[in-house]
Amino acid sequence: MLQLKNIYKSYITGGSRQIALDGINLKFRESEFVTVLGPSGSGKTTFLNIIGGLERCDKGDLIINGKSTKEFTDSNWDFYRNNNIGFIFKNYNLIPHLSILENVTIAVSFNGLSKKEKQEKAIEALNRVGIKDYMRKTSQYLTKDEMQRVAIARALVNNPKIILADEPTGNLDSKSTIEIMNLIKEIFKDKLVILITQNPGIAKRYATRMITFRDGEVIEDTNPLKEDLHQKEIDLKRTHMKISMAIKLAIRDISNKKLRMFFYVLISSIGIMGIALIVALLQGFNKQISGYENDTLANYPIVINKVYTNYSIHNTSQNSKQTQNDLKNSKLNTKNDIIYSYNSSQNSTEHINQVNKDYIDYIKQMDKDLVSEISYESQINMNILREDEDGKVSILDTSTINLSSYPKDNGQETYLEKNYELLYGYYPTNKNEVVLIVDEKNRLDTNILNALGIDVKKNKEIKFDDLIGKEYKIILNDEFYKKQNGHFYVDSSEKNLKKLYNSKNTITISITAILRAKEDSNLSNLPEGISYSNELFNYYIDDCKKSDIVKSQQDSNYNVITGQTLKNSKNKEDEIFEISGINILNNVNQSTTKNQMLSSLGASLLPSSITIYPKDFESKSDIIEYLDNYNKDKNEDEKILYKDTSTTINKLSTNIMKGITIVLVVFATLIFFISLITIFILTYASVLERKTEVCILRVLGGKKRDIVRLFNTENVIIGFLAGILGVFLAYTFIVPMNYGLEKITDLSNVAILKVENAIVVIAISVILTFIGGFIPAKIAARKDPVEFLKNQN
């Protein structure tokens, strides 16, 4: 069955070679009780280790059932030990944190049996050695005799063919020695037992064959086997540790060393907490910037003007490059009391936007869900009358009151509510209610106040009540302009103006609010003066377009009021013209273009500018994409260029966020590597502490990958616990951290750790501990069980 053929084994110690086995040739029967005698250092233990597959011979061959082992791999030896060998040690080598039952069960944990089958086998083995009643206890509660019985049960449970016992009674008293030897002989009577002892009395009493070693050689064999026996095929059934067993062993080790594991988890969790806080800050800063973009930058409109001017020092012309080089090389000193002249036009590029009806139609086809409002600004003249305190009616000089229109949002807050502080009155609720805009010091230009009918000479300080509720009348064109002999005129007599003022066809507008731009608003771009809704603006233009004077002017090449010939325009009739918003009554002697006349009559065909207010920041991107699509495949002079007023600020915020991200990522990386090193050290310490467990698992047939799996499983569990604790600590620390940040920056809830991010952090913790513990796990797997066993003797 078992044959050692010309076995040589030596070691190098202290620079010299020591011969442990010198040409051993032995055969063993399938069932016999062999004792091995000899002084210390004679080669007995090395002989036993080679048979057990724990050591490899330098020369020779171990033949098992006629099969050579020269080509055995590490895995083959692992399978061989688990299926064929049962070990009994002098020092028992029980795993201290496992129960008696678990110590025995672990020997059958590599052969794929179910939990129930393994437990039944272990209980049966414990029953045979007479220690079943203690199976729930750990080894610290057993006597030496009882511990050796457990070791015998562990050797028995796999039903091996060979039992290797290395001085199993070396630590027992004489009574216990006899009991253990009787037990071994009885239980293993049908197996090959090879037992090392230094007690000749035991050898003579129990052995059927005695072999004596001296200086690495066999000097006596009382019952040698000379003939060849019938050989059975060697059993090398594949073995492996199930993940469930690895989890069980890991949990038992963690629960057995609660305090140490608590500090292990705590130390690991501190690094995880740092990563979680960094993730929370990144997420919080992103949310703050996103909120800023949605609340502020999203409200920055996209503006399309007739003339698009791009100021840039990065001009691509040769002259511009030369100018930049001159600036770089010049010795300008801003501290000197000298003014340096330059031509700003060289650093700008102007583009004329040829906005036509097709483009206006394209804008109107934009998805309505993307915009809050689209404002079309035209320079028009309104026919407005005012009534003074003495009842006198006069035409209001609209060129002095800074007439402007404001957009209306589709959301809950209007443009005015978002960007202007209400000083007095109430925000407009319909198109006939207008607002009065003052500057940051509550000032209004004297001309505006005079035009509105306020006597500034008498009242240097005007109360809000003097302005709130003040009414004015808008007179539509068909009422305001009279036709006579093919021309139109305005009857500005006091009687006619009074009649017009009191007409039922007028539009009565009243000042309902006095507003001032909010300090934190970047969209409060309305000029000081009267501002009305876009709704009123559109209503007035639509009516003007239907009026007789506008229709007549459209069909005429002369000024229908003065009779003067209209100026020719180089631009097409359906394009925007740059006009000065003339008041037709004050400029009757000026020569104008047809579009300027129509604008003065309140019927501008096309707007002078288009302002698009996105609904939110995401919508702005879609709007820009929509506008860019119009310019595809068009020549440069046909393109319509726009200005996104938030671009510069958005770039700045993006760069700031990039800077913050880089800094936090650097910190996170440092924390990551510190945690990695810490986990490596702690895992390696655990490896050193668990040498017994590791080596016993290897002796019992556990493969190196089983040892790696065991430690990796434990690291994953620890990583999960550290992740849970780290996330909990992060959530706890976020509250005071946010409080401190709010005090410093006025930003509330900066750090935000979402549940999904917390889960990711826990996953990072698991991966971190796995990586950090992988190398120590590999080191553990490479531990030589022979060295461990030698150090015990």
From TrEMBL:
The cross-references to Gene3D superfamilies, in alphabetical order and at most eight, read: P-loop containing nucleotide triphosphate hydrolases (3.40.50.300)
State if Nucleotide-binding is listed as a keyword.
yes
| Cellular component terms (Gene Ontology) | plasma membrane
Location of the protein in the cell = Cell inner membrane
According to the entry, every stretch annotated as the ABC transporter domain falls at 2-240
Q: Name one Pfam family in it.
A: ABC_tran
Q: What is this protein called?
A: Putative ABC transporter ATP-binding protein/MT1014
Please name the source species: Intestinibacter bartlettii
